[in-house]
Design brief:
- This protein is mainly beta.
- A hairpin with a 5-residue loop joins strand 10 and strand 11.
Length: about 375
């Protein structure tokens, strides 16, 4: 009888412990067929040139990924957690980054005070770009603000492509608790981890600081964000990339309206020159039975020092998602981009080129000519687990 009581006590204790902690394996596998073209005018000795490319792509609807996350109840309202998430190149089996868990790699402590999160994580300014985009900044429908920010040079805005646009490594983040009547927010600081001394100029490449504050209640969601990162251009001159954006959405039931305003500013040091890219986005989603219609139009325009026209690109995207179940969906997206005054935005570069990325190049515009228009489509399936 005593042995039975001891066994029952051990089983009860084990059950309580397992209830207080959990580990989850999760992921998304997204694959499809993609097409991209790019039309260049006034190529010397040739005239107009159109490049085309078909292929198997991944992440046309949601980014393919594999992850592990877990929580432990510490008692007294405290909880510890971890999140490890890796990108997948499931169309060719490639690991798409040498830093395997580069999508997110964090450990956290949360409670009534909010959450403190350490590691590699999404930046506050990126959240507005993806939250208020009907296409979630993935696939051929990816909004023009995101494209211009991630590769500023395509709009003639220098060469300060922001490595901390999506995520910041070596970061400390704080999130407000969720019980503030709809108000939410976060702050982040990413260390540059460079060695300093007393001999003169010290690089701060990789440093990031930013924050986001918003309000979500009922059909309304609105948020403002600002971030600043230290970057180095191709001439090894250090500069700052400053990002400001404001996004909002309103769900009317039959349709959900979305919009965003954004500015990315490059300050070059020590020259003092500046370059800005201003962007706007209007989007809409509409549920139709088991499906969802998505559409957006956006523009990014550079504002450069000196004379001459300011390059700009305008993008239109239209898509449909058909949910076969809660975890499986079919999708189709088309996009068209026009370029003016030196802009060179391609509608999509969503392919892992060649076998293991060898022997092929992405569609682009022909050097020496005038970049004009680009089209693309994604047609695929997404399964989450």
């Amino acid at each position: 009888m005593k042995k039975s009581l001891v066994a029952l006590a051990v089983l009860a204790a084990a059950g309580a412990a397992s209830a207080q902690s959990s580990v989850t394996l999760f992921g998304i596998v997204d694959a499809g067929v993609s097409y991209t073209d790019a039309r260049t005018k006034n190529v010397p000795g040739v005239g107009s040139v159109t490049q085309k490319q078909y292929g198997m792509s991944n992440s046309g609807y949601n980014s393919s990924r594999l992850g592990f996350r877990g929580t432990e109840d510490l008692g007294g309202g405290l909880a510890a957690g971890f999140w490890l998430e890796a990108p997948l190149g499931n169309d060719n089996g490639a690991i798409s980054n040498a830093n395997f868990f580069n999508r997110r790699s964090t450990v956290s402590l949360s409670g009534g005070f909010g959450e403190i999160r350490l590691g590699r994580d999404y930046t506050p300014t990126f959240w507005n770009d993806t939250t208020f985009d009907p296409f979630g900044t993935v696939g051929v429908g990816n909004n023009i603000i995101s494209v211009a920010h991630g590769s500023a040079n395509i709009l003639g805005a220098g060469g300060l492509a922001d490595a901390a646009y999506f995520r910041s490594s070596n970061s400390v983040g704080y999130f407000l608790p969720p019980n503030l009547g709809g108000f939410y927010g976060q702050m982040m600081y990413g260390f540059d981890e460079n060695v300093s001394n007393n001999t003169g100029f010290q690089s701060q490449q990789g440093r990031y600081a930013g924050g986001r504050f918003g309000y979500a209640n009922g059909p309304l969601d609105v948020a403002i964000a600002y971030g600043q990162s230290k970057v180095v251009d191709t001439a090894l001159l250090e500069g700052k990339t400053k990002t400001f954006n404001l996004g909002a959405s309103y769900d009317l039931g039959v349709v959900k309206l979305m919009g965003e305003l954004s500015q990315v500013r490059n300050d070059f040091e020590p020259s003092g020159a500046t370059a800005k890219v201003n962007g706007w986005l209007l989007g809409v989603t509409a549920p139709v039975g088991a499906g969802l219609i998505r559409a957006s139009v956006g523009q990014a325009r550079a504002s450069l020092d000196g004379p001459g026209d300011d390059p700009r690109a305008t993008k239109f995207a239209l898509g449909y998602v058909h949910n076969l179940s809660k975890r499986t969906a079919l999708y189709a997206t088309v996009a068209h981009t026009t370029n003016k005054d030196g802009s060179s935005v391609v509608s999509s570069n969503n392919l892992n080129q060649g076998v293991a990325g060898v022997g092929a190049t992405s569609v682009g515009f022909v050097a020496g000519g005038e970049a004009k228009s680009s089209n693309g489509f994604d047609l695929g399936i997404r399964h989450s687990f």
